[in-house]
Amino acid sequence: MTGTPFSEAKPTLSYFTWAFIVTALGLLLGAWLGWLSTGTIGGMLAVFFICAVLAVLEISLSFDNAIVNANKLKDMRPEWQRAFLTWGILIAVFGMRIVFPLLIVVIAAGIGPWQAVVLASTQPAEYSRIMHDAHLPIAAFGGAFLMMVGLTYFFDAEKDVHWVHWLEERVSRTATIRGVEVGVVLIFILIFAKLLPGAESTAFTTSAIYGLLTFLVVEFIGGLLDQSQQTLSAAAKGGVGAFLYLEVLDASFSFDGVIGAFALTDNLFVIAIGLGIGAMYVRSMTIMLVERGTLQQYRYLEHGAFYAILILSVIMFCQTITHIPEVITGLGGAALIGVSLWSSIRWNRREADPAA
């Protein structure tokens, strides 16, 4: 594939070398933390198991994230691809899995960053309570942002490949109406705001509007930055703006996993290990998808990912009203991507042998 920093296609397992290394180190570190905190073999194995489950949870929730990342990365210049896959993953692992939960506690509890670290270390139950109390605005913000991501893909007048043809073709035609996707998101916000009591309704609406505005601001800034780069070089593609977009997108995908992780453990450091392992697999899957040109080979794979994003956004809104197990979110998204992959394979076979 031209224009990428990657080498020729290689064995599938080789893409996951670093992910396997991080998995081994992370699970060993988790076991060590379990031994330090409990002093028993049972406690050590329990923490080891929780780290493994969190990693699987993160991977299951992030199939669509990897596909969307690859969709954007394939058009980026090599230096920006490398930047996202190095600095971007550091931000994803350390920023979203460690700094983000601490920042929530800093803001919600009105304490300093160091006090938040101490609270996470010495009073994990209180730390967990603060995180759960902040769930509503986080879910509203992330849900609105991800809904815009999903709708923008389908509300595209130039989109000519349709998976659910009868639906996507009609949606694509309505994309000529200016701001139609914003209107759809606002309708969802109004519906869910009506279902929540007074103070919660206000918090939900405010946070969701911020999520919507964040998407629009990132798109606007990204367009300006990339346009200025294109002025300098006609070959410039997907620079600062695309990098910024991917980082905010990664953050939005992380909300659900970070909050859901507290259902398994109150220990911030165990959560960081488990979700960090999962994030490395997302990076590996992204590299494999871009290098092998998988999105070009399987024409409906992107569709499945963006449908999964739309469902995830609605689930995040629903979670402001009632708890929905993360396993449903993860399996639902994985199932959609699996069906889209199967549909792509069938289409490829028909093209190769029209008589089949």
From TrEMBL:
TM regions (residue ranges): 12-35, 41-63, 84-114, 134-155, 175-196, 208-225, 232-253, 259-283, 304-322, 328-345
Keywords from the named record: Membrane, Transmembrane, Transmembrane helix
Signal sequence range: none
Domain of life of the organism encoding this protein: Bacteria
Keyword Cell wall biogenesis/degradation: no
InterPro entries (alphabetical): DUF475
Record NCBIfam families: PRK14013.1-3 (NF010613), PRK14013.2-2 (NF010616), PRK14013.2-6 (NF010620)
Name under which the protein is recorded: Integral membrane protein, YkoY family
Organism: Paragemmobacter aquarius
